[in-house]
Structure formats: C-alpha cells, structure tokens
Amino acid sequence: MDSIPLELVTEIARNLDTTTDISHLRQVSRAFAYATSPVLFHRVQVMNTVECLNQCQEFQKRSPASASTVRHLTLYHVIWPQLRSLEDWSTHPQTLSPMHVPEHEKVHAYYAYRQFIDQEANRTFDTDVCRLIGILSMFPKLTSLTLSHIHAWRWGKLRDDHYEKLRTRIRIVPFFKARVEDLAHRLLSILPGFPQITKLDIPSTLDMKEGEWRLTNENIVSLDVSNLVVRGYEHHQVQSFLQSFPNLHELVLGTESGGQISEQRIALGSLQWQHIRRVHFRHLWTTENDLRLMGIVLLSNIYSVWTTTPISTLYQA
Asked: Which InterPro entries does the entry link to (predicted)?
C-alpha cells in the first residue's frame, strides 16, 4: 500500500461520498492520512441554529487552511415547537419519552429547551443575513450549496453531531414539515455576491407564497428543487422564482400542489433560459400548448428532457 502515489490517494478520497469513508481511508497509514487531509473538509454541513452557525464561524478561525478546501456546504433548516410551559413540553408529541425521565432531569431539559427557543426567537432577518454572509465568505472555493430541512432524508438517517447533542439536551425534535422558504429568502438574497457558487440543491419543500421573487442569481447554472409548491397556473411567485436563474444549464424540478391537484401547473411556455441543456421534471402538471411552446423556445439549445413519472398534460376545452 505504501507504494501507491499519494496524489492517487488524494484523488481517490476526492471521489468518496462521505467524510466517514474518507476517515476509514485515513486509518490505513500516516501517509494516507496526510494525503487525504486536503479533502477531509470538502463537504461541510451546518444546522440553522444560532449556536451551530456561530460554531461554523469559529471553525474558520481555528483552521483557516481547512476552510479554504471546502467545496460543498449543506445548510439544514429546522422548525421547532414553541411551548410555553413544562406541561405543554411534557405532553407534546415531539418530546422524547418524557414519561420515562426522572423529574429533575425533565425540568433540566425543559429549561434547556426554553433557553434554546428564546435564543432562536431573538433572531432577525438582518442578523441572519449577516451570519450567512460571514459563513459563505469563509469558503473561497465553495461551488455547491444545498439548502435542506433536517428531516429531508434521501439516504437514510441524517448523522449530525450538533443535532444529536441538541436533541438529547432539550429532549425534543423539530417538526417533520420539511419547508425551507424562511431560510431560502435569507440565503438566496445574498447569493449574487458569491459568483463562485454555481450549483444549488433544495431537496425539501419550497413554498414561495409570499411576495414577488425579484432577485436575479446569474451565477447559478445548476438548480435542483425537489418539491416546489405550486398554487395554480397564475402562481406568479413560482414563475418569478424560476426566472430568477436566467443562466441555467441544468434544471431538475419536482412540484407539489398547494391546493387541488389540478392547480399543480406551471406555465412552462413563459420561462426562457437561453443556455439550458438538460431538464428533468417530476410530478409536473402542464398544458399541451405549454409543452409545445417550451419546445419552440428551447429547441436550439436543449438536448435532454426527461421525467421520472409521465408529465400530466391538461387539455383545455
């Protein structure tokens, strides 16, 4: 094993999926540990709490060299129950086994919960934006960003030390409603200031139901949204959100209905991306005419349009 060039070991580590796999490779020898160090922090995940965001900023101060190697950042959003009494906390369905906890431990966990919730309640839009700007500025080589809910699991249970410790301390888990629009409004408003970030993945429910989306993110060329809530053909927030990425090369889009299933429709014909090459739709309702218009608009550039489920075409009388 020692005869393997260290450059090859580094490249192997670069293509591993998780830091756990990289850690196993590092245990082979000291030489392997040295060779894999540059990619150990290629992927960083941060939970959207004041404590975790502050810890992330401290990471850069402690290890600026490691921060300079980060390529992908995942931000996990969380929505917590707001409970004002020990009784409400003890009986809430999100509380972890309160009946089997000694009374003094129960009280201690409740006060830890109240302290945590009060800290989160004092957050403002402006302070959140400042924190996020500071975090994105820490990673000069960051190219890919994932905005997820803590419960939006695609590949089994999420492993996050901060989340596990927090859950154990306050003995309650977040809601399972995987919506991330609150964090999206804060984060996407600052993305134009980071042109090195070209890929955005949102594997959660995104409900753009309030306000018009007037920002333009010209740097994003790859967009993947798992569940974009659609409320009818004239849902202008959806249209303006999708059109806010004018330079897309690749789009993966899944939708869900915000009302009746027949309202789960997007006016594809009104969307124009001059550089689009690949489009992948999931659970999309549209009209035959819009499919035709989309084909006309994109025909000169696009070479791949595919779906995991058939597109439901609504015929108009």
From this structure: LRR_dom_sf
Q: Which residues pair with 199 in a beta bridge?
A: 144, 222
> To which residue do tokens 């070991």 refer?
9
Q: Where are the domains of the chain?
A: 1-40, 41-192, 207-317
Structure tokens at 273: 């991306």
- At 156 the pLDDT is 44
Of 1, 26, 4, 3, nearest in space to 13 by CA: 26
Which stretch of 15-24, 114-123, 169-178 has the lowest confidence by average pLDDT? 15-24
Provide the pLDDT for residue 223.
Answer: 97
Token pair 């009302």: residue: 259
Which of 283, 271, 268, 274 is closest to 229 using CA atoms?
283
pLDDT of residue 115: 95
Angle at 205 between CA 201 and CA 206, to 5 degrees: 75
Q: Which residue intervals of the chain are DSSP H helices?
A: 6-14, 19-26, 30-36, 50-62, 64-67, 86-91, 103-121, 125-138, 161-170, 181-188, 236-243, 288-298
d(CA 251, CA 272): 12
- Nearest Cα to 69, choosing from 10, 113, 156, 151? 10
Q: Are 220 and 197 in contact (CB under 8 A)?
A: yes
